[in-house]
Design goal:
With 141 residues, the chain is of the alpha+beta class. The chain has one domain. Helices cover 16% and strands 43% of the residues. The strands form 2 sheets. An 8-stranded antiparallel beta sheet has the order 1-4-5-6-9-8-7-10. A two-stranded antiparallel sheet has the order 2-3.
């Protein structure tokens, strides 16, 4: 097993142990999504592809690449919404050719999650040159 796989498994185990599985995980919390572009989430690079989504707690979710099995544990910040969502979706910010996961919406819930760590321009010159990012949504299967 590669080092990154071992690290991902350890992070998953630590997150579940430390947080005690405090989320109300239901069958609806386990999702599959196909993302047609590479993206960054919680300072991690993820390639385009199909991902199994599993909510470990209300503050941590795991994206597992369906093809390679590589897992990425992401920290999220739950936010209460006013509308019950009829479909699950991931919302990305597109900045040029780069995509950043910004929000995750769950079907059948008024709760959505904001990514705890989002892309920030690295310098004042990058900020001045950066156009406003576009929003791109990808529906959960």
């Amino acid at each position: 097993m590669k080092h990154s796989g071992i690290i991902s498994l350890l992070l998953t185990a630590i997150a579940v142990f430390v947080l005690g599985g405090s989320a109300n995980v239901t069958a609806q919390d386990k999702l599959t999504i196909t993302i047609p572009f590479a993206f960054t989430a919680d300072h991690q690079y993820l390639p385009a592809g199909a991902y199994n989504v599993d909510w470990l707690t209300d503050r941590y979710m795991e994206l597992r690449n369906a093809k390679t099995g590589e897992a990425h544990v992401l920290m999220v910040r739950p936010e209460q919404g006013q509308v019950i969502e009829t479909r699950g979706r991931f919302v990305f910010l597109q900045d040029g050719s780069r995509y950043y996961l910004a929000r995750v919406w769950m079907a059948g819930s008024s709760v959505h999650s904001e990514m705890a760590a989002q892309h920030r321009p690295e310098s004042a010159s990058e900020l001045a040159q950066a156009p406003s990012p576009k929003t791109v949504e990808v529906n959960v299967n």
